UniProtKB/TrEMBL annotation:
The organism of origin for this protein: Nicoliella lavandulae
Family matches, as Pfam families: CRS1_YhbY
Domain of life, source organism: Bacteria
Protein name: Ribosome assembly RNA-binding protein YhbY
Domain CRM: start-end pairs: 1-97
Phylogenetic classification of the source organism: Bacteria, Bacillati, Bacillota, Bacilli, Lactobacillales
Record's keyword terms, sorted: RNA-binding
Gene: yhbY
Length: 103
């Protein structure tokens, strides 16, 4: 699903009070990290990822890595925080994506 501007705005508002669930540290980006994030998104559909100060990774690097290796979409990048969205594989976890479709 390609997100329109209105849908991205809706997701940003929904994630406003969320706290980052995952962090990227000095190890950087890896397939293991992406697998864990993907598994978490299959249950939540929307989450924040924090890039720690000791990491050499930039938010643009996260966006390129995620886009190239998965179906996860980057909704927003603010400072060293990235907001990720993915439609859940199982229908019983598709709460956020159902709301997004109605926007």
């Amino acid at each position: 699903m390609n997100l329109r501007g209105k849908q991205k705005r809706f997701l940003r508002a929904k994630a406003n009070r969320m706290r980052p669930l995952f962090s990227i540290g000095k190890e950087g980006l890896s397939d293991t990290w992406l697998t864990q994030v993907n598994d978490a998104l299959n249950r939540r559909e929307l989450m924040k990822v924090n890039i720690l100060q000791n990491s050499a990774v930039e938010p643009q690097d996260v966006e390129e890595f995620v886009a190239a290796n998965s179906e996860i979409q980057v909704v927003q990048k603010i400072g060293r925080t990235v907001l990720l969205f993915k439609i859940a594989d199982q229908a019983k976890y598709r709460h956020v994506s159902e709301e997004v479709k109605q926007v």
